TrEMBL record:
InterPro entries: Acyl_CoA_acyltransferase, GNAT_dom. One of its GO terms (molecular function) is acyltransferase activity, transferring groups other than amino-acyl groups. It comes from Pelagimonas phthalicica. Signal peptide: none annotated. Keywords: Transferase. It comes from the Bacteria. Pfam families: Acetyltransf_3. Residues 19-182 form the N-acetyltransferase domain. This is Acetyltransferase (GNAT) family protein. PROSITE patterns: GNAT.
Amino acid sequence: MRLVGEEETDGRVLRGETVTLRPPRAGDAEARFALGQDPTIARMYGIDPAKLKPWSREVAMDWVTRISNHDPAWIIDVDDQVVGDARLHGFDTFNGSASLAIGLADPARLGQGIGRQAVALILDHAFRTLGLHRVALRCLEINTRAIRCYEACGFRREGVAREAVNLGGQWYDDILMAKLAQDHLR
């Protein structure tokens, strides 16, 4: 597992006005453990709150390990506190595309523009540094806060995966969205 300190300067850190995206470092698993599992947030990820696995330090450590073993992936840090994670994945190098996944784990930090700032940092990295042509994502239709964030960051709705997620016996659509480099670099 790759851990870094405050002196991180090798380009894996993306800094915004209040948000820093960085690799994991010592103490992140304990910080993530302290946040716990919020059932409302889990539901927005498409996880049935009734089926959440018990929260433990081991699960929090696994969360940090997954981020450490995925490149590019970041801890979302605000005021030197862990608030979530983000990653680009599913790279198609031939077509210059990738998918974005992001999630805030701290319910107290929702609605503060943190997600919007993190998405903007990632898009800038994806298009300017990595030279991608397209970044796509999927978002559960009931996650209206996230959809507003993505639209504010310039993502456009491209389609719907009908009844793609079953939560507690009810089916929900996934909204398919993407942003192109040409729209970001204007």
